[in-house]
Amino acid sequence: MQFLTSLSRTLVVQLWVVLVVVSASLEIAEGAAFRVLDQSAAATGQGTAFAAQANDPSAIHFNPAGITQLRGVQFSGGALMVGANVTYKGANGTKMKGDFGGTVAYPPPTHLYFTANLGDLGSELFKGWSVGIGLTNPFGISVDYPDSSQLALVASNVELPLIDIKPTVAWKLNEYIAVGGGLDIYTFASFIGEGQGEFKQTAAAGNAFGLPAGTSLEANGKDTALGFNASVLWTPFRNDDGKPLLNVAFVFHSGADLNLKGQFLANGGLIADTRTTIELPNVFTGAIAVWPMRDQFREWKIEIDVDYEDWRDFNDLNLNLSNGASVPFPRNYNDAFVLMIGTEYRWLQPRWLPDWETTVRAGYVYSESPIPSSTFEPGVPDSAYSAPSVGIGFLCKTGGYLLGLLRCDHFGNKAIGVDLAYQVLLRQTRGVSNSNNGAVLNGEWDSTVHVGALTLRVNF
Prior knowledge:
Blueprint: H1 6-19, H2 41-44, H3 59-62, E1 73-90, E2 95-99, E3 110-117, E4 129-136, E5 157-159, E6 162-172, E7 177-188, E8 197-202, E9 216-222, E10 225-238, E11 244-253, E12 257-266, E13 269-279, E14 282-294, E15 298-310, E16 319-321, E17 326-327, E18 336-347, E19 356-367, E20 385-397, E21 401-402, E22 406-407, E23 415-427, E24 430-432, E25 443-459
Antiparallel strand pairs: 1-2, 1-3, 1-25, 3-4, 4-6, 5-8, 6-7, 7-10, 8-9, 9-12, 10-11, 11-14, 12-13, 13-16, 14-15, 15-18, 16-17, 18-19, 19-20, 20-23, 21-22, 23-25, 24-25
């Protein structure tokens, strides 16, 4: 059967490796494999160790129970500026490079959050309840290789602009315990990228389809899938002002089944329709945050988070074709742990900047890789990595001025702020010697990712 030839197997393997990378438009500061950790600049600045703190609108992503700590109505939104390089050195000494399609990936991944404390809005019936909605990119990949390289015969470009819509609700049971949860609606949007996942490749000479060498091959697919999340935030100790001195958090993000459907094209012409079912991992998070110092003038937090990413159900990417053929492709991923450590120091009433809060942050991430060498792919050039980060934040409150000209509460809001962060992912060199794709991928793989994060915040 022609679809079981070497070339066709390579094509469909690469297609569904890409389509399983459920993401926004690119691989950014991620956990194991293709999971994206960065979902706000405040969290990125402290190594995304934020699940136990969870005191801004991005708690919708990091710990839904945390939105009960927010007063009134709050909004935050921002973007990531991401650049990277991937270097491959073959066993025969051949060297090749890839990137995110340019110095900085475009369009940039974004995050948006909106929260409302129903009690603060005057509801006695729902006092203690908070609601919110978010838009995030919790998984992601995008890698581009030159069309002239031998890697283009395996993968020249991958894109998958998937988004996660997150309706959220939380309840503060008492001064010690809050719970929260919501849905994860994974879907595509026509105004983001091509509105579907895409994989591109250059046909080799003597291919099974009888196509001329150099023919542009493309595979695409999309779906909408549903997952959920749930969390608990425990605050056993507070200071005299009622602010937490110790927070303990547990968060669960369920996996989701993606029944992806798409087409396989040659120079834009249809060869076959395709479909497969893909399982995203369950993610369990445990976190603890301590404030050694917290008074009316300054706050100092230290936090440790640990993620367990359960990839063990990701065993295969069996592909069903419209001609009735079914092609098995084992993946055999393992589980993986991610360690996040972060700290934040905040001046609440600095003399040099009245009516402002100023913050400095630092953090560190270490992540394992769940991908065995036999199923390593250039579209997911993953390996264990270390990622240091730094960040700053400014929050202008009622009475303050922006640039000395515009009052921070000019539009009826109570505060407006900005957070900035920088993170670099330093991947360990990955040696591959037994790739399912043969000698073309055997060798050493290195990559470095640079992430700049910006988030704006408005409190009403």
